[in-house]
Design brief:
The complex is a heterodimer of chains A (232) and B (130).
Chain A: E1 4-15, E2 18-29, E3 33-37, H1 44-51, E4 59-64, H2 71-74, E5 77-80, H3 92-102, H4 108-117, H5 131-143, E6 149-153, H6 161-177, E7 181-185, H7 189-192, E8 198-203, E9 206-212, H8 213-220, H9 223-231
Parallel strand pairs in A: 3-7, 3-8, 5-6, 6-7
Antiparallel strand pairs in A: 1-2, 1-4, 8-9
Chain B: E1 4-6, E2 9-11, H1 19-32, E3 41-42, H2 45-52, H3 56-68, E4 72-75, E5 79-82, H4 86-110, H5 115-124
Antiparallel strand pairs in B: 1-2, 3-5, 4-5
Classes of the chains: A alpha/beta (232), B alpha+beta (130).
Chain lengths: 232, 130
């Protein structure tokens, strides 16, 4: 039996009249690189925020690494929120020092390796960075953490092609380096689908389809094809 | 589908089919065709995953199957190498040839041709010595 990294039972969440999650269920196996897919407003970010305890469900339960989300489980999660800007007035070096001081499992050597791989330098000021460079820095800080769960909410969105390629390369390097469960939400399916072992398709707050990506390919075609079948 | 070349191996991956099988089949066929020599080192899992831009788990699974088929061997601390056993490679070539013939025959059958027709067509192409 495969152990779940994350399991959700009948999750419901509303924001006023807007339904974010409706009886959402899923079991995400441990050690997989999992795609969190679906159109905007389908519930992806709400689900990812629930994993880190930032949003509580109205009903239902979510279990993360065998526990309820809390500050304790959060020590085991490297989370990259969507629309994050962490290091306003910092240099890259200060961002790394900040990570080393505050983030559980942070490995400074690994952070510098990743920063180098991602084409950034220690003295660069974050304030003067392009969006793509800043995204690469935040990703490096997340990937430098030796924690069992990595949650990346739209790490590719609005970022230039070369930055995306560098991020993909850093992710593959990271997957080779250590065995983590990784959740990535993205709309850049064509470029990223070959990275995934597992996929969850969200539709109007529900789990429209989830499963092993290689099995889905054998049954229904590429992740892109399935996306078109489900939402087209 | 772009062709990707890495260390004597050639790949073109189709995302609508399982990737594991494609990596496995394409390495196997590179060995059978002699595109990569006996005893030659193949890229590490990490290098292969980077070159193909795929999940290292997928490469790992394909490598494990190649090793199980005795087409490759892993030497501790040195990496993974194509087998030096020429007879084993010949076995795989024969197997791939058999599969190709089966596919061909199945296609001809579906078009309504029998063995006799096929034989004379191959002869007409000069493909078989009398």
């Amino acid at each position: 039996m495969t152990q779940s990294a994350i399991s959700a039972e009948d999750l419901c969440k509303r924001y006023g009249k807007k339904i974010a999650l409706a009886d959402f269920r899923v079991d995400i196996p441990r050690g997989t690189v999992t795609a969190i897919l679906g159109p905007n407003g389908a519930g992806k970010s709400t689900f990812m925020r629930m994993i880190t305890g930032m949003v509580r469900p109205d009903r239902g339960t979510v279990t993360v690494l065998g526990r309820k989300p809390s500050w304790k489980t959060n020590a085991s999660i490297a989370y990259l929120p969507d629309r994050a800007r962490w290091f306003g007035g910092h240099t890259v070096r200060q961002a790394v020092e900040w990570g080393a001081k505050l983030l559980p499992g942070f490995q400074t050597d690994r952070a510098w390796e990743l920063i180098d791989m991602l084409g950034l330098g220690a003295d660069q000021e974050v304030a003067g960075m392009s969006k793509g460079q800043e995204a690469r820095l935040m990703l490096a800080v997340c990937l430098a953490r030796d924690v069992p769960l990595l949650v990346l909410d739209e790490p590719f969105s609005g970022i230039d092609m070369l930055s995306r390629e560098k991020i993909v390369a850093a992710l593959i390097d990271s997957f080779s380096e250590r065995s983590q469960t990784v959740l990535i939400s993205t709309h850049e399916i064509a470029e990223t689908e070959s990275l995934f072992d597992y996929a969850v398709f969200f539709a109007e707050g529900r789990n429209a389809l989830s499963g092993d990506v290689e099995e889905l390919r054998a049954r229904r075609g590429s992740v892109q094809d399935i996306y078109r079948q489900l939402y087209g | 589908m772009n062709e990707i070349r890495i260390g004597g191996l050639r790949f073109s991956l189709d995302l609508s089919q399982p990737l594991y099988e494609q990596v496995l089949e394409q390495v196997r066929s590179s060995i059978a065709k002699g595109e990569i020599a006996l005893g030659e080192k193949i890229p590490s899992v990490r290098e292969m995953a980077q070159a193909l831009k795929i999940n290292p788990n997928t490469v790992m699974r394909a490598y494990q199957e190649l090793e199980r088929e005795r087409l490759t061997e892993t030497r501790r601390g040195q990496g993974t190498f194509i087998t030096t056993d020429a007879a084993r490679v010949q076995e795989i070539r024969n197997k791939l040839a058999e599969q190709a013939v089966e596919q061909f025959l199945a296609k001809m059958e579906s078009l309504g041709f029998g063995l006799k027709d096929i034989e004379s067509m191959i002869r007409a192409k000069g493909g078989v010595s009398p």
